[in-house]
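User: For a benchmark we're assembling, each entry needs the component sequences followed by a predicted structure for the full assembly. Here are entry 17's components. Please fill in the structure.
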Amino acid sequence: MLPEAIELLVLTAAALALAIALAPAAASRRALLARGSVGLAGTAAVAAVPTFDLALLALLAIGIVQAAIAGRRSLAVRLRAPVIAVGLLALAALFARVQGPEVVHRLAAVGLAAGLAAAVGLLPYLHVFDPEELVSASPVAWLAYVGPVVAAVVVADAQGILGVDAGGAFGAILIGLGLVNIAWGSVAAWWTENGAAAWRYTFVADWGLALSGFGIALPDGKRAALLVLFTVVLCRLPLYIASRDSVRERVLTERPVNLIVAAALAGSAPFAGFAARVLLLRAATQLYWPLALVLAAGMLLWLPASLRLGRSLGVPSRRQAIGVAVVLALNVAVGLYPLPLLAAAGL
Amino acid sequence: MEIVGAFTAWLGASLVLLADGRRGLAAGMALATLGLAAACLSAQGPFAAAVIFAGGAVAAVRRTTVGGPGWAIMPPGSTPRLVTCVAGGLLALWIGLAVTTGDGGALRFAAMAAIGLAGARVLWSDDPAVVLTAVAVMALGIAAATSLALDSPGVWPFAVAGVVAAGTAVIQSRSPRAA
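Assistant: Structure for entry 17:
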């Protein structure tokens, strides 16, 4: 199993524990634990199986199980995205394996990138989102729970099955998709009227950074991608779950905790998002310095949306306050000293 | 055998794309299963083919009892789906036999047709029975595509695909409800 995938699995398990702690009182923690455990087992299967095809079948099984959970969207709508993702990835794997002209292998690169975007729920394939839906049945489960491990597996396997030229095309497509998702996610999170939708778009923007990091095939790019995924799993997801009630009730508060949470969500120092952004800019500079300029401009777009989301958290109390404190402490620790996290992933 | 199997798989996947009724879907599932199992027989041996057949057979039999009534093959308004079946088949045939080279042309065609047409079906329908049938065809198509790998994939992809295909038969669709 990939060390990166193992680490992301551990982070996902920690996110599940935090989600249970932070879940609003109205939510059933037992149901969340059961569904989260099934999702974690499926995600572990995606990472643990020895071949790409088995990983795709495991991903398909996760999609079927998630679609079977009662939710506000129909089974067909929820199943559509994972099935399209698996189909694209399977066709891409087929194209990568066959003998033929180089264009077929480049098509494989396109299919892998498009399939990854569809699996996670990014542009050009944003999943249909219902703000009132359970988190476990919603697209956020793909963005922040299953998606990180799937991305690590797809990117690692793509490097194995694609040749040098097609691998370069794959990286370029990931960077392009990353920039589009950064721009779309951060601007949409700013403009949308619905608070839950704003949270969802910031996940998309974060994923834009991660895709850019994966696309820049340099060690610093991979490190940045891992740190961004850390912030998705252990910062944005728990805080999103903590804010569900106050978002629904349209509560806006401007206490110090809201400002600190906004800073963590925006990726400012000393939180983990800041280290990720520094590494990403360094990698982009090494690859092609104008890319770093574009990324830096995109990173500024996080600020308005993060201030909005920080205020939408409300004032956490009791169990939620402890959970938010743990999330912030973890993010400060990783932001100040990310080396153990990166070393554990072999980066 | 392999060529007949590949065209049968395309026919089955096309039937799944064209049918709205449970009998039509079951017939498409059965044909796709037979075709993919036959296409895999020479490449992966009888055990892999049998596993694919078993998983697909469970899905097909179950589909005869769950879903829309009757056959409903090519209902009014299905011309775009018919065009997709023909165009998708021709595209898969061209890529599988002319653009790409090497052994296993029929298998390439069968896998591409099954995965592609099943994916198109998922985009085209909101009916759980239809979508789950397409998912089952896609799972079997993915297993068939593993035969194209340089290293032998072993029996596991076929077994897992069979389980996934059979699993779609037991999934119950629940009505959407509030969180």
